[in-house]
Design brief:
With 94 residues, the protein is mainly alpha-helical. Helix content is 47%, strand content 4%. Helix 2 packs across helix 3 and helix 3 packs across helix 4. The N and C termini lie far apart (29 Å).
């Protein structure tokens, strides 16, 4: 992370990264408050696979936990602010 003139950390842009279609569904589920167990049952994936994708997205968005991941996704306009349950702001490239 970079430091701005006030001494605050500034995140670097995420570039052209777009979540895959499965990452979109996982991110929407995390934003809705679903556990890895629930997501694994709904998406027919193992909970370890869900956790892996959450980890990858957290790294891409420089988020230390699920709450920060969702917050960053809203701030970066990856998730729409006008929908509930949370929805992705664009079609995923996958």
């Amino acid at each position: 992370m970079d430091i701005d003139q006030n001494g605050c950390e500034v995140s670097q842009p995420v570039g052209d990264w777009l979540p895959s279609s499965i990452q979109v569904r996982i991110l929407e589920g995390v934003a809705a408050g679903f556990t890895s167990g629930r997501l694994s049952r709904e998406l027919y994936l193992s909970s370890k696979t869900i956790d892996y994708h959450i980890h990858v997205m957290s790294d891409k968005l420089q988020a230390p936990n699920r709450v920060a991941l969702v917050s960053r996704a809203f701030v970066l306009q990856i998730l729409r602010t006008d929908a509930w349950p949370p929805r992705i702001a664009w079609e995923a490239a996958d």
